[in-house]
Amino acid sequence: MFREPTFLLWLAAALAGGVAALAWSALRRRALATALGAPGTLSRLVPPEAAGRRRLKAGLQLAGLGLLFLALAGPQWGVELVATQGASRQVMIAVDTSLSMLTEDVKPNRIEKAKQELSLLLDSLRGERVGVIAFAGEPAVVCPLTTDIDAAKQLLRSIEAGMIAVPGTGIGKAIRLAASSLSRYPGTKTLVLLSDGEDHKTDPAGAAEEAAAAEVKIYAVGIGTSEGAPIPIKDASGALAGYKKDKKGATVVSKLMEATLTEVASKTQGEYFRLSPNQNEAGDIVERIQKSDKAEGVGGTANSFKNRFIFPLSFAFILLLLEMVIPEKGPFRPFRAKRDARQTERLTRAAVAAAFFVFVGEGGVHAATAEGSLRKGNRLYEREQYVPALEAYAASGKKNPQDPRPVFNAGDALYRLEELDKAATAFEAIGKSNYPAPLRAAAYYNMGNARLQAGEFPKAIDAYRQSLRIDPSDRDAIHNLAVALYYLKHPPPPKKNKPKDEPKPPQKPQDKKDKGGGQDKPEDGKGGSPPPQAKTRPQDQISGEDAQRIMRAVAEKEKTAGAQARQLQKQPAKKPEVEEDW
């Protein structure tokens, strides 16, 4: 296939024009010769090889011209993995999942009404980068920022009141978590807050001021009524068992606190909306979001056809050089040992120029600029400017698609930005490739880290096992595999403080020379600056005997882990005692 097929039409026109020009020049030459004398007499003055040489040179010129237009048409075949760049807006949606969201002053209840509104909002935000936070007494990221709206909607179905282990309502904490997640991106960011407005001493106004300083605009959506209603308590069958009571035994009446939501929206120059049955609040919010600026960044990886214009361009260059060194008359012995000095010099220059163009060509020109973009990305990465670093890696990948380092390093930057699914996809593409074994082992390890951070424990286990198949001696992979297996059996609660006896999860990416596969120079022994990479080192050590025991137990654990995880999910989380747990 061709990138610019219209040049093929110009190719036909150019060849037709070239043939016409050569025919006209031949007629003109014959007319001039006739004016000078009889053709028979002139033929004895012209060397016999001149006519044949002239036709050969004309043929080489036409062939070179045709190949030049063929190169302009951009022939393509084969595929390559490249980093894709795109512009999008950053929107984080925070959903209140406290017990007060079970109140039925809106039908069917507040949490279900919020999920309906959120589903409409997600459908309208396709093409943007969207994340979802669920919060009660503490916030938790349900879906990291992603452009995969279908995946976000699937995670939305799992949101329900009481899903957060820490009871209560912490609007201020949710705003701070959202602002922290969005702060990595340039330009204006948006937080859509869906809540009934009740807050238990988490300073929502102060959090909103911090969000405004980070250029985060809040659109608050109030769910409920000002009159309020009791919070129902239902049994396993769904039948009403009573109403929520406070510590004094009085029935709790949950009301919509519009003042809090209005204040946090106004402090960020946002807007407050009250959810109503007839109005289209989601459409109004999307309309305002779309007026904000988009931010550039790497959207992930994609397969692209390889450009092959270098081949016809090289042959055209060689043919045109050859036409220049063929004389119209006199001896021409390119393959004989004896030749005159001028002819030797011309042939040598042509051979050197052709060799340079063929062996350096596009690769040499692009390699220089690609290497510069890669180094620029690494410098930005070191300064924790991950979004500009992604842009530099994308530019490097476009200029030298055969180099896996831009994709590897872009995956690491995406990991730092908590774009965990995209980071895992980038690492997986390298792991499944034919690149050197150390690079593939590092890629699978990093993929495991991304999946583990996202809470996808079975996928993390598979990635660590793939890494260990390539490099069985990697103690880091053995340690993190043990962590993933433990988490699969004992899912960590969505809160900051973990039990003291719980295995430590992998750290954020480290810049170590002995880990990872991305670097400034290819792995040819010539050195290069340390790469950005997601390879980690465990904080606690593991004995060789323990490592062997873990590896032997992996297969058996995987068989039973799914059933154990399902049983654990059915067990209610133990909630800490708080004064207001709704």
Strand order of the largest sheet: 4-3-2-5-6-11
- Might you state the CATH topology name of the domain at 85-298? Rossmann fold
Structural class: alpha/beta
Helical residue percent band: 40-55%
Shape annotation:
elongated
Q: In CATH, what is the homologous superfamily of the domain at 85-298?
A: von Willebrand factor, type A domain
CATH architecture of the domain at 85-298: 3-Layer(aba) Sandwich
What's the average pLDDT? Answer: 75
Number of helices: 19
Low-confidence stretches are: 335-339, 356-367, 495-544, 557-576
- Strand element count: 12
CATH class of the domain at 85-298: Alpha Beta
How would you describe the overall organization of this protein?
The chain is α/β, with parallel strands linked by helices and 582 residues long. Among the domains are: 85-298, von Willebrand factor, type A domain (Rossmann fold); 407-570, Serine Threonine Protein Phosphatase 5, Tetratricopeptide repeat (Alpha Horseshoe), CATH 1.25.40. Helices cover 50% and strands 13% of the residues. The chain is built from 19 helices and 12 strands. The protein has helices spanning 6-36, 39-45, 50-72, 110-124, 149-156, 171-182, 204-213, 258-267, 281-289, 310-325, 341-359, 361-382, 386-399, 405-416, 420-431, 437-453, 457-470, 475-489, 544-570; strands at residues 76-88, 90-96, 129-135, 139-146, 189-195, 216-222, 229-230, 232-234, 240-243, 253-254, 271-274, 295-307. The protein has a 6-stranded mixed beta sheet, with helices on both faces. Helix 4 packs antiparallel against helix 5 (149-156), helix 10 packs antiparallel against helix 11 (341-359) and helix 13 packs antiparallel against helix 14 (405-416). It is elongated and about 130 Å long. The model is unreliable at 335-339, 356-367, 495-544 and 557-576 (pLDDT under 50).
